[in-house]
Write a structure and sequence with these properties.
431 residues, alpha/beta, 2 domains, 14 helices, 39% helix, binds 4'-deoxy-4'-aminopyridoxal-5'-phosphate
């Protein structure tokens, strides 16, 4: 059954919850994906620069085959012994630093973070949590009420009483921008610890993405995590790294983005790229925290860790390593950033170019001095780039950051073509 684009839009309006927007002024009908490319219904090809879920490329044959083969053999829950589950647990924990060695396999990033909150509460006997401004960690009530991206945005009901917000460690737009900004943002975390203790409560957790996605592709300044983690741990709290967007080699230098900050969390949550589009996610923690959570109440997840998910998760790890995708993210990330930096030197619309590996952000401003966000221009750039076959999107609290987080099978030619088109489109927008 095929529907025209207008029919699909009408059906969506009538039968799909309305609070779900479509990308682009003229929405795309995408019917096929291959590697870093998406194809519409008439065969136009688009370079996907924004989907960090299809990490090893859309429809990677090795991943597809692993899923197909296992679907034809068995898919059931984790109450049976299964080789794939055992192998996946070994492979995943082998790639994480000690003492992160106990896994909970779930289906979405939201489930992973929600479970991470439960683990932290069980271990510390406290709900008090410190979160970064502009952060998003998922769509369950437990995460909406601590994620300011949502609870302080349209339709939001504000931050929960047990959540304590600290400044987003954004060295470009945040309150601290100097050499010592890492230290100063960490002082805010230490202050939040004091505020919690001042009310006679215990510190529960500090939850932060290792690089912020929805916050605007932010790389927290050096020293921030080391000091923030120390302050929270000193007070008896646990630290949770949300690597749902940035894990699995995207940052290029390391497999996990927290490693690029020289820290190891007590709990890490993984999602999006872990299954290359298949709904798989994970929480990995220490034996001590896992023991605190073992209260007698079972933790059972109908779909989490099923044999198909584990087959796919294993195949994703094999492709990341077999195709040296982390090294590729490192090399192509450098190439991309150099190209964008060169554009920034010529286009006054670009206020900042930042990121690690293939997790990049280009912040557009109307004035380099005042750093006034150029949200309208960012939207136009994204639409014009789409017209040229490059799919991008915007994010950040001011919607003026163009985010770049493509499948990691991108080529050098793709990078160069993107930078060239970006150059032309910026000229068109300002000219
Ligand atoms: N954490 C982060 C950092 C995310 O970006 C997202 C999704 N955008 C989530 C958690 C939630 O993941 P999911 O949509 O798979 O529930």
């Amino acid at each position: 059954m095929q529907h025209s684009n207008e029919e699909i839009s009408t059906i969506r309006r009538r039968h799909l919850g309305r609070n779900l927007s479509l990308s682009y002024r003229e929405p795309l009908k995408i019917v096929r994906g291959e590697g870093q490319y998406l194809f519409d219904e008439v065969g136009n090809r688009y370079l996907d620069l924004v989907n960090n879920v299809c990490h090893v490329g859309h429809c990677h044959p090795h991943v597809v085959e692993a899923g197909r083969r296992q679907m034809g053999l068995l898919n059931t829950n984790t109450r049976y012994l299964h080789d794939h589950l055992a192998e996946y647990l070994l492979q995943l924990t082998d790639r994480l630093p000690e003492p992160l060695s106990v896994c909970f396999l779930v289906c979405t990033g939201t489930e992973a973070n929600d479970l991470a909150l439960r683990l932290a509460r069980a271990h510390t006997q406290s709900r008090e949590i410190i979160v970064l401004e502009h952060a998003y960690h998922g769509h369950s009530p437990s995460l909406i009420e601590i994620g300011t991206y949502k609870c302080e945005g349209p339709g939001g009901e504000g931050l929960a009483d047990h959540a304590h917000k600290v400044s987003c460690p954004d060295p470009y737009r945040g309150p601290y921008r100097g050499e010592d900004s890492g230290e100063r943002y960490a002082e805010d975390v230490a202050q939040a610890v004091e505020v919690i203790q001042g009310t006679g409560k215990r510190v529960g957790a500090f939850l932060a993405e290792s690089l912020l996605g929805c916050g605007g592709q932010i790389v927290p300044p050096s020293g921030f995590f080391e000091r923030a983690y120390a302050a929270v741990r000193e007070a008896g709290g646990v630290v949770i790294a949300d690597e749902v967007q940035v894990g699995f080699g995207r940052v290029g230098t390391h497999l996990w983005a927290f490693e690029s900050h020289g820290v190891v969390p007590d709990i890490v949550t993984l999602g999006k790229p872990i299954g290359n589009g298949h709904p798989l996610a994970a929480v990995v923690t220490t034996p001590e925290i896992a023991a605190s959570f073992d209260t007698g109440m079972e933790y059972f997840n109908t779909f989490g860790g099923n044999p198909v998910s584990c087959a796919i998760g294993l195949a994703v790890l094999e492709v990341i390593e077999g195709e040296r995708l982390q090294a590729r993210a490192h090399e192509l990330g450098k190439r991309f950033k150099a190209g964008l930096d060169e554009l920034a030197a010529r286009h006054e619309l670009i206020g900042d170019v930042r990121g690690l590996g293939l997790f990049l952000g280009v912040e557009l401003v109307t004035d380099l001095e005042s750093r006034e966000p150029a949200a309208g221009a960012a939207d136009r750039v994204v639409d014009l780039m789409k017209g040229r076959g490059f799919l991008l999107s915007t994010d950040g609290p001011d919607h003026n950051v163009i985010k770049i987080k493509p499948p990691m099978v991108l080529s050098a030619e793709d990078v160069d073509a993107t930078v060239e088109s970006f150059d032309n489109v910026l000229g068109e927008v300002t000219g």
